Structures are given as structure tokens and as C-alpha cells.
Amino acid sequence: MRIEEDKLKSLYTGFARKLGADGREAATFATCLLRADIRGHTTQGMGLLPYLVELFDAGAMAFGRAPEIIRDNPASALVDGKRGMGQISGTFAMDLAIEKACACGIGFVSLRGGADYGMASNYAIQAMEQGLIGMSMSTGPVLVAPWGGRDAWFCTNPISLAVPAGSRDPIVIDMATSANSMGRTVLAARDGHKLSGRQLVDTQGNYTDDPTQVILNPMDRESPMAGALLPDGPKGFGMVLIVELLASLLSGERSWQDEHPSDGVNRQAFYGQTFIAIDIAKFQDPAEFAGSAERMVETLNSSRAANGFDRVRLHGGKAAEAMRDNLAHGIFVRDEEWQLAASAARKLGVELPAV
Amino acid sequence: MRIEEDKLKSLYTGFARKLGADGREAATFATCLLRADIRGHTTQGMGLLPYLVELFDAGAMAFGRAPEIIRDNPASALVDGKRGMGQISGTFAMDLAIEKACACGIGFVSLRGGADYGMASNYAIQAMEQGLIGMSMSTGPVLVAPWGGRDAWFCTNPISLAVPAGSRDPIVIDMATSANSMGRTVLAARDGHKLSGRQLVDTQGNYTDDPTQVILNPMDRESPMAGALLPDGPKGFGMVLIVELLASLLSGERSWQDEHPSDGVNRQAFYGQTFIAIDIAKFQDPAEFAGSAERMVETLNSSRAANGFDRVRLHGGKAAEAMRDNLAHGIFVRDEEWQLAASAARKLGVELPAV
User: Fold this and answer.
1) Cβ B175–A292 below 8 Å, yes or no?
2) Are A265 and A224 in contact, with CB atoms under 8 Å apart?
């Protein structure tokens, strides 16, 4: 089904207000979720609503908790998100990084006390929409074992980079640094597919490509696990570590004191996040940069494909296509996603837009 | 064979002086190569000498070309390396990043006009030795096709992060973002091994795991290729792109104008580099950070191994072991590496230390 943007916006705003958000918080929350929906990532937009209600019921996040700047320097800051809404603290932190980048060339904001902030590229795009290069990375629920290990100590640790490319679709990288995201692994279990390699470890410590050995409830986006996800080899583990070190250890979100690995059902979560903005104008003429970026996109998109591929695809191209389509014809959501979101809204007493 | 550190230092210094370096340049050059040798990465230390002579003969790099700061901001700078020695311009750029980090929290230096700078982690470690977090990444000779493509447009684009861990071995990540480095691919061809996946593309556009289909001279570290290396799937391509965008496009090193893919023999090279330093003290008490990092290393190193693995290994641990051994017993180099280096030295008329 297709829903007009303003109707979805009104749903998200009503949802946030009902949960205690003031007008500004509600608007920020709606902007973040809509950015995901419009780019075709409804699991980080409308799909979040039922999950958010659970987190609220558990007291794990709330509106009205203003992020606090703990340490402030010309190009960097440490922010405490106070376990408020991840979308609110994330937007605040990236705004701060952008301000610092415009003054100093780069802004680097480290956030502890965060919460699920949805789509990592949301914040990178926030900077890109101001003409800057944006980066964001996050830790979160413990799901991933170290390479060579069997117990989960890490989140899937997503990383994102958004770079404007003049009149071409921007390059937007947004990916879990583990071999697979939780969402894709659950989906593979649901569909009975094997993974493309030994990307899971079972409770006996065996590496496997069979998601049904590890995912206990394939109908649950946050399924309990008998085992853990894995990085993609030692190199993938390096990427997981880069995010862990920059987003969690540096912020002080995680001290590794008296910890025990999660059991796959009761997961600890460590939401440390990093927000980086880079002011292109401090390095070269933005018009020249735009020209180079455009040619890069054109050159690669039109380069010769390998056998078995139709073309070379750049990160962010598919999302840009979805965006054009969604803005022209209303935002596409799956029927069951709408039903789940509507049910969560009704539970809270949020008025549903007519669709 | 084992060679004492001061003898190697004297060889490198003599080498640099003979090639026109002043005393300070020669000392910097020797420090960079020794750092690689001591950590067991002699391919980026002694192993570079014969290759450097080739690059000098071709006029591709030279001493005496002082890097120039083109744009300067409180936390960022754009530096032109003037195609001088990569070790000299890299050390200069990281020194600048460290200075900016100590003033602003983070320093981000983008370098164009660079050259082969050896071991990426050399510069990250340079920052780490001052108690900061260091990062470095580089582009270079065109060897890697985009995922889904068949023509080489990218370098193996290494990335490095070095983080101090108190009394424990520091975490030092240093890796090609392509599925394999050129060195490992050549070695696999030499030893007749298949790669662990379809990590190469041949001239017909077929993805293959057989290095002998692509590497034309397995005895040559910089072998000509019939085809290209590949990223590790779409996610690996994302990593290659992150380095390309931050290290090359941002610096203006590469404009993507009127370019054609290399033919596997005559490779273009685009040496753009990024140097990042982060001052831990601007985010938390460095002693607390050291404690958390120590516990992270201890926790992961002692966590349960999966079946088929002896233990969980952290990046940089093996290099730290090699370092202890080399500092105690003299630096280990392979006999043929020494012979090749000695031959290059004799060719230039550099005095050889007695070994």
C-alpha cells in the first residue's frame, strides 16, 4: 500500500506526543522515521513503532530527556544521551558535529547513554543535506561473537557514510559491520535460506550457514538466539572493532567491567554512537568536489559489468530510486507493517490517519 | 637471520642520504621502515628497498620535496605531498593531525600528491605513541575492480586504527579493504593455493578463486595482472569506497576526469591519504580509558574459542609478540629479503653494516 508523506508524518507526530514528546521532539522523531521510510528502509521507519512501544513499556527510552554536553572542545564533544530517544539525541549530536565542522573543518561527537537511533545513515544524511560529508556509527544489543569465538560480545555495529555527488545520486553507505544484520538473518531463517557462508555460531561452538540452527523465532525481528551472529572473518572483525572502539570505548559507554556474555535471550545493550561531519569547503571548492563525485558515480555506474552481474551498483543508488518513487506516488509500506503500526498506535490511543 | 636494530637503522639512514635526504628526512625514513620491521611486517620495511630504487629510477618519488599546507583550519588541513617520499609526507601530516587533536579534540589531515607510504599503521601508531587514537588510510595503484565490475578502478585501499590499551598490547588494525592484499594474492599464486572465495576477476569478466588465472608473475611482489583483485562482496566494496571517498576524493587527489582503467600492467596510481588523531583526554580520563581497554583485551583474549580455533585473537596482538621477540633477539628478516636489500644498497653505493 501507499501512504502520503504528510499522513505518515501526522502518525509519527501523534505517536511521539502521546508518549510525552514536546512539539520539537515530535517533529525530529517524525523526520528521522520518514527519512528511512522514504528511502525504502521501512524497518527503520514505520517498522520501528511496535518495537518502540515495547522499549517504552520496559522503561528503556523516553522523550523529555534532553541530551547533555559533558565535554566540549572546538572540534569535538562528549554527549550523554541520558537514555532518551535515540532519534532525538542522535539529531542533537549531529547538529553539534556540523556546527563544529563548519568552524574547524571537522566535527566529531561521541555519545554515551544512547538508545536505538534507527537508520545509521539518517544522521550521515542529516550532514549531507547541509552539503557536508556525514558519518555515523553505533553499538547496541549484544548479538555478535568475536571472530574465532563463540559468545556474543558485540552488536552488529553499523557504520554509515554519506557523500554528496552534485546532480547524481549521493553515495550513501549504510551497513552492519558483522557478516549479516539481525534483520537479514531472521529473514533467511523465515524463508528457509542458507547464508552465503559460515556467518553464525551455534551453542556448541560450531560455525554454520544455517540460520534455523541459531534463530529461535524467525517471525520475530528481535528473535532470541541459540548462539550468535559472526563477523565476516578476521577482516570483518576488524570493522566491528573499529566501530566498537570509536563509538563505545571512546565515549565511555562501555567499560568491560564485570561483564558476562549475553545468553541470546536476555541481551545487554551498549548504545555508544559517533557522529562525524566534514566540511568539504575546508578542503576544496565544493563545485569541483561535486564535479569529481559526479564523474565518479557516472564512471562506475557505466563501467563494464562482470559475468553474472547486470551492472556496477553504488551504495545509495537503490535508496535514491526508492526515494523518487515514494515521493512521486506515496510511500510504499507492506500491508502487514501498516497493520502492526496501526495496532501499536491504537494501543496507545493515537489517532490513525485515513488511508 | 637476525639483525640488530641500530645496524638496520644505519642501513636505512645511509640509503636515504645516498638518495638525497637531509639528516632529518633520513631519520624519519629510518623510523618508519624500522617500525614495520620490528612489528614483523618486513614487506613494509626492508622489503621496500628494492621497490623504492625502482620508483626513484622512474622519478616517481624523491627526498627534498617538503610537503606544503594548502588549506589550514583549527582541526583540519589539506596537505600537498608534492610526490615526495610517502614516509616523510605521512609523518608530517600525522604530526599536524596530532597537534590539531591536542588543541581541538580531533585532527583530520587530508593529503594529495602522496606516494607509497609503506605500512598504514605506521602513522596510526605514531599518534598512539603520543597517547592518542590514530587512524590512517590510503589509496594507491589501481588494482581492484568495483563489486559487480571487471575493470580495476581502485587500490586495495588499506585502513588502520591504533588504540592504546594501557599495560596490554595495543589494538592495531591494519588491513586492505579489498578481499585480499596484492602481497597475499601473489603469495597464494606462488604457493599454488586457491583463495578463500571468488576474490579475483579474469580478463573475460569471470570471478575466480584461482590466483594463477590473474597473477602473471608470482615471483614479483608487484606482478602484472590479467584481470583485477576484488572487494569482499557489496559490503567490502563499501569499505573500499569509504577509503576512496575520504582519502582520495576529498583531498582532490583524484578527479575522475578522462580516465581509463589500467590494463593490469601499466597501472595508474592515486596516492591520497587521510590522517586522523583523536585526543582521548578530551573525552574521558585517559586512565579510565586505559582500564576499559585493558579489560576489553583481557576479556576477549580469554573468551571461549569456537571449534576449530585455538583462541580469540585481537588485531595487533601478533605484531606485539613479534615486536617483543625482535627487540630482545634482533630483528628477524628472511635471508632472501636481506640479499635483495643488500643488492639494492650495493647498486646505490650504500655502505652495508656487517651482519
Assistant:
1) no
2) yes
Closest residue, chain B, to A206 (C-alpha): B307
Q: Which ipTM value was assigned to this complex?
A: 0.96
Report the C-alpha gap between B235 and B179 in whole angstroms. 10
CATH of domain A179-230: 3.30.60.50
Contact in structure between B135 and B161 (CB atoms under 8 Å): yes
Pick from B74, B206, B238: which is nearest to A74 by CB? B74
Q: Enumerate helices (H) and strands (E) in chain B, giving the number of each.
A: 10, 12
Q: Smallest CA–CA separation between B87 and chain A, in Å?
A: 22
β-pair type (B200-202, B207-208): antiparallel
Looking at the complex, does the CB of residue B184 fall below 8 Å from at least one CB of chain A?
no
B130 CB neighbour count, 10 Å cutoff: 16
pLDDT digits (tens, 9 = 90+) for A296-315: 999 999 999 999 999 999 99
**Best residue in B174, B195, B199, B245 for a mutation probing chain A (most A CBs within 10 Å):** B245
Residue of B nearest to A150 (CA): B306
Interface test with B, best of A128, A235, A248 (most B CBs within 10 A): A235
> Which carries the bigger pLDDT value, residue B229 or residue A50?
B229
Establish how many alpha carbons lie within 13 A of residue B19's alpha carbon, considering only the half-sphere containing its beta carbon.
Answer: 28
- CA separation, residue A33 to residues A19, A67, A68, A331, B234 (Å): 16, 19, 23, 12, 25
Label the pairing between strands B207-208 and B227-229. Answer: unpaired
pLDDT in tens, A190-246: 999 999 999 999 999 999 999 999 999 998 878 999 999 999 999 999 999 999 999
CATH number of B1-64+327-355: 1.10.1530.10
User: A102: nearest CA in chain B?
Assistant: B73
Kindly give the residue spans of alpha helices, DSSP state H, lying in B58-177: 86-104, 121-128
